[in-house]
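for the writeup, i need someone to sanity check this before i put it in the appendix. the sequnce is what the collaborator sent (i think, or maybe the updated version? ugh). structure was predicted straight from it, no edits. if anything looks off just tell me and ill rerun, i have time this weekend
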Amino acid sequence: MKLLNNKTPRVSLVGAGPGDPELLTIKGLKAIKSADVILYDALCNEMLLEEAPTQTVKIFVGKRAGKHSFKQSEINLLLVQNAFRYGHAVRLKGGDPFVFGRGYEELEYIEAFDIPVELIPGISSSISLPALQKVPLTHRGLSEGFWVVTASTASGRLSNDIALAAQSSSTVVILMGMRKLKAIVEIYQSFGQGDLSVMIVQNGSLPTEKVAIGTIDTIESIKKENQLSTPAIIVIGEVVALRHRAALNKQFYAALSESK
């Protein structure tokens, strides 16, 4: 179906990455530069909107914990309406659209109207933010895999997967878990994991980034001392201790160099 402006409706679901605008993919940037309308989330860096043509329409449809400006059903409808109205609609979503981004729900709804949809993956905070802190999610002898888990289910309750993950030797990355940190700590403690290393990264990859490291037994007090809040990820596992080891190695080699 052609529009009055002779443009064909189409949608690009674009992952904006963890926050730093330079962590957007080249393909995502090309989509933004060709957009007629952009519907963007709260976790998207608004600097990315500056890459769009001047005439591009920008619509904020962001959602925050407890402060939803639009229901998901409303966002779905807006995507279809704006694709028919303007042509190329870009749905800009923080992280990756298919990692707790409800991207598939949007894909399914849009395709029901026979609108072509392009999926452009983004760099997920679950992988990138630990890496930026020099914390590998897997490491020989420490972790043979990793879990990426949301703390909250659709009903708002703590995910049962947290208890399953706590029994694993793999690294666990918990998204949207700050409001449920106390319950998460209690689960790990119930499995005797009180000494396990924990890292919280708030506003990861941005100038306002905060990082705190502790153990299951200490992380709640550390969170309070550092006034950490959302948006943040929680990383649990032995690999977190490697960040401290990297710092010690740096100090060692610096001292060695000065002694020569």
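The two ends are 73 Å apart (CA to CA). The longest strand covers residues 10-15.
thx in advance!!
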